[in-house]
Amino acid sequence: MRLHGIYPQIDDVLVLGIETTAHTFGVGIADSNGNIFANTRSVYIPQKGGIHPREAAEHHVLHSAKVLKQAIDESGISIEEIDGIAASFGPGLGPCLRVGCTIARALAIALKKPLVEVNHCLAHIEIAKLDTGLVDPLVVYVSGGNTIISAYASGRYRIFGETLDIALGNCLDVFAREVGLGFPGVPAVEKCAEKGQNYIPLPYVVKGQDITYSGLLTAALEAVRKGAELKDVCLSLVETAYSMLVEVTERALVHTGKKGLILTGGLARSRKLRSMLKSIAEDHNVTFKPVSDEYAGDNGAMIAYTGALMLACGIRSKPEKSSIKQKWRLDEVDVPWMKKLLH
Ligand code: FE2
User: What pTM did the predictor assign?
Assistant: First the structure.
């Protein structure tokens, strides 16, 4: 039981949060002190190919009642005790977002509780800060849908580097699928890379603080088609893709002067990426901590917790005026709880 969490200045509120930006239907119950009372989920795994938004949305509809009930049972809390209902309102896949947001609106109206619209990227950051105890770090958030390097400055989490096209996780997942390494792609590509011996030059594209992965993906697939050994292509792909991310992260560390570095999102499970980031952190005398596996991928607990922080700061929406935001950027969101902590 946490008594004060990492933001002791804010009130204690209890929120139920729903996550449906992509393949996960997740429900969490958490308070603004960082106590997680429930974190349940059901994950849609496509039969073949990538995530089909409509099929994923159907999965979410189908599993919603069961996962919600599991969360309430797991928490031992009655729904009347909950102070607010939160959901991921973006960024994400439209049909998937609509499921979670519709359920959240209906719950908020039926239970006469405030509704909180949570930014999914912000939630990945807040749960990682809670989990690691680093309160003002540089955050590397990498997953199948996002690749963002950010840190708090003047009221918001500002972006100090991001992908200009596809996400790092998406690059490795698509490669794995195309060459028959299956799903989940990232561990499969990393495992295959361990056997590689020869480095094949692939496009290393860093533009200022931004990176692009689609050219790298195309070139890696092309190398396989031309007969290069798969293990060598995997080695080169992983080394190139991670090095690009680490290069901009290191510059962002120096630029922001932050003393902590966090890795969050689905790729936080990657031991290889962890070790590369740890190494630059040590070079700069910075504490490096990855989020734990439980909170690395999409989950309802991060939405509930971030929703609780928002609600404690008076941020709420009218259900009839709320709407999903498929391209909602992290740096459009105010984070008053950080202002209260640092100013
Ligand atoms: Fe995510």
Answer: 0.97
